[in-house]
Specification:
Helix content: 25-40%
Largest sheet: 8 strands, parallel, barrel
Bound molecules: phosphoenolpyruvate, manganese (II) ion
Number of strands: 14
Strand content: 15-25%
Shape: elongated
Number of helices: 11
């Protein structure tokens, strides 16, 4: 249920209404708009509650929400959520680009890639220290040492960092080292992990399960929000369809749909969404045109020898720099700023 105040309702009156709601054993989430405030009400309300609320002075209307997710829904929170991390805003009018390898491999590898991400104008360094692999014999990531390598590279080159966390036990150590925690597609419904992420304040990038509906995806986000962590971004990373030419099918429609249903920032991952290097740039552009708040893109200095199989979808550094140059021109046409602090380096100079 949501209660919408009239445009004359004072802050003091809103606080009184919130107390009234809490006295009835319910939770109130206040979302201030330009001239009206939406109060989202969570909990099991008595049947007469909606009518009683409607009678309170300062309330204009009361609407019942039938969706199973509440805090993630735009009904509860009409304005876009903007997550600010060390001066980078995610979900506002700024386009955010996260770039880096699938996996952290060595201090030299992540340092060099961080330098190139920064040089091209990216704001966030991506890289997995713990890798969720389909087969148990595949490279599983370098572990905790990888977290340290990444944190050091991020600090040195002035980039935020994002890394995947796979189990509740590793949430705290990952949060100590990274600015954003990624939940991978295979873990979208790992409810113990989601609950644990709800107990911290570190921003979370939640990837859509490769067979998840929008409703299931938003309910997964709701677990984190309901636990008390409001800093959640949604990531479309491709779903499984009958098509085998691409690794997954990047569901571009998800971007405007999620923006419509939810106030949370939406990030697109064309690397895993297509699995093919040559498709990453066009699908990055299409994602920005569809309204994405940011992109997460795999880039590697030596993709042919990368330690995961994701080299085939990783951009070469020159391609990454070229993409960001194009995005700088495209972003304003799509209502975004792309404030890069790029420090261009000559093409080809990245060769190790
Ligand atoms: C990744 O980002 O490298 C990754 C494993 O992603 P996903 O969970 O989307 O497959
Ligand atoms: Mn990958």
């Amino acid at each position: 249920m949501i209660a919408i105040t009239s445009n004359k309702t004072t802050d003091e009156r809103i606080s009184e209404i919130v107390l009234w709601i809490e006295r009835h054993g319910l939770q109130a989430h206040v979302s201030k708009g330009e001239d009206r405030t939406v109060i989202g009400i969570i909990g099991k309300a008595e049947p007469q509650m909606a009518e009683q609320l409607r009678q309170l002075s300062g309330i204009e209307s009361v609407v019942k929400i039938s969706k199973s997710y509440k805090l993630a829904s735009r009904d509860f929170h009409p304005n876009d959520t903007v997550i600010s991390i060390k001066g980078v805003d995610i979900g506002g009018d700024q386009l955010v680009v996260m770039g880096g390898p699938c996996a952290v491999e060595s201090p030299q590898q992540i340092d060099e890639i961080a330098r190139l991400v920064k040089a091209a104008g990216g704001q966030v360094l991506r890289g997995g220290a713990f890798k969720p692999r389909t087969g148990p014999y595949s490279f599983q990531g370098v572990g905790v040492e990888g977290l340290e390598m990444m944190a050091e590279a991020g600090r040195k080159h002035g980039l935020l960092t994002i890394t995947e966390v796979m189990t509740p036990e590793y949430v705290d150590i990952c949060a100590e080292h990274a600015d954003i925690l990624q939940v991978g597609t295979r873990n979208m419904q790992n409810f113990d992990l989601l609950r644990k992420l709800g107990q911290i304040q570190t921003p979370v990038l939640l990837k859509r399960g490769f067979s998840a509906t929008y409703d299931e995806f938003l309910n997964a986000a709701e677990y984190i929000l309901a636990g008390g962590n409001p800093n959640v971004m949604l990531c479309e990373r491709g779903i499984r369809t009958f098509e085998t030419y691409t690794r997954n099918t990047l569901d571009l429609t998800a971007i405007p749909v999620l923006k419509q249903l939810s106030h949370l920032p939406v990030i697109s991952d064309p690397s895993h969404g297509t699995g093919r290097r040559e498709l990453v740039e066009p699908m990055c552009k299409a994602s920005v045109a569809a309204g994405a708040d940011g992109l997460i893109v795999e880039m590697h200095t030596d993709p042919d020898n990368s330690m995961t199989g994701d080299g085939v979808q990783s951009l070469f550094p020159d391609q990454f720099a070229n993409l960001l140059e194009h995005l700088e021109r495209l972003a304003p046409l799509c209502g975004k700023r792309f404030d890069t602090q790029k420090q261009p380096i000559p093409a080809g100079s990245w060769k190790l």
